[in-house]
């Protein structure tokens, strides 16, 4: 068996990392609520980190259509993890917010995968971590899709 070419090694490693991240994300979500899964989990974490936010703003940040955010918000609300509030700056608009129960269930670190990665990198030389970060940022920039991101206009 011949060794993989460097680009193939990168692809294989990225695929493995993405699969691990997806698996950990699923575990994180079900630890908060057995019926919770990936998409709504991402929305919930975003609300916990950012605070109450308009759906269109979240759609812009996640580069998804507003209907996706609405559908996921409905799922979270049905589980008692999300509430809709009147926007104090515009009484016609609504804010999505994580409930107290959601914040309690998530604890101090809503992204245990982040803690896992930081822990794994703690034993590395700081310059190696900096090099890895720079290379990943560079790869991310060149892999930016050529098509335009989802256009979400917020009123």
Automatic annotation (TrEMBL):
<feature type="domain" description="HTH marR-type">
    <location>
        <begin position="7"/>
        <end position="141"/>
    </location>
</feature>
<protein>
    <submittedName>
        <fullName>MarR family winged helix-turn-helix transcriptional regulator</fullName>
    </submittedName>
</protein>
<dbReference type="InterPro" id="IPR011991">
    <property type="entry name" value="ArsR-like_HTH"/>
</dbReference>
<dbReference type="Pfam" id="PF12802">
    <property type="entry name" value="MarR_2"/>
</dbReference>
<dbReference type="InterPro" id="IPR039422">
    <property type="entry name" value="MarR/SlyA-like"/>
</dbReference>
<dbReference type="InterPro" id="IPR036388">
    <property type="entry name" value="WH-like_DNA-bd_sf"/>
</dbReference>
<dbReference type="InterPro" id="IPR036390">
    <property type="entry name" value="WH_DNA-bd_sf"/>
</dbReference>
<dbReference type="InterPro" id="IPR000835">
    <property type="entry name" value="HTH_MarR-typ"/>
</dbReference>
